[in-house]
Amino acid sequence: MLxxxxxxxxxxxxxxARLPGIGGKTAQRLAFHVLSLSDEEAAGFARAIxxxxxxxxxxxxxxxxxxxxxxxxCDDSRRDxxxxxxxxEPRDVIAMERAREYDGVYHVLHGVISPxxxxxxxxxxxxxxxxxxxxxxxxEIIMATNPDTxxxxxxxxxxxxxxxxxxxVTRLAYGVPVGSQLEYSDEVTLLRALEGRREI
Length: 200
Description:
Elements: H1 7-17, H2 24-36, H3 39-55, E1 57-58, E2 65-66, E3 80-87, H4 90-98, E4 104-108, H5 126-134, E5 140-143, H6 149-162, E6 168-171, H7 187-195, E7 198-199
Parallel strand pairs: 3-4, 3-5, 5-6
Antiparallel strand pairs: 1-2, 6-7
């Protein structure tokens, strides 16, 4: 088979193509861009990847990503630790924080229940949430998973598990359009969704 590019360039292109949302042409553009970097810039780029992989881990309390013992939100005494907003992914925390209206803390599931993708309740951080709530001091859980089939199923499953613990469980109001992604919602939409949350 005829090879158009040197093997290292093809390998780099293949690695970029494995990233979510990156197609073949974009992967190729990224690979060529990396080749155009100076040795110092390329080394810095590679170092940033290695350092992020080595230093970033999950917060033992909320499961969000951090490079400290506790994440900045869990470590903030000004936050309302009796109010927990449950989100699917770390990027959803950023979306909620952009609204600048929520003063509680978070719990990151790192996924949603998705039988089609072979993701069950034991594959996401539900156990850690139940353990956290069982320690007491939590008055409300806000389920802020995406308003789609999998997000709704995950929210309902968790709410059933929490029912015996006598904690109020609410769901974000549908100011967030059904089928959309939380990370793409604007601040006003998220604020309305937070204000209009309902018990489930």
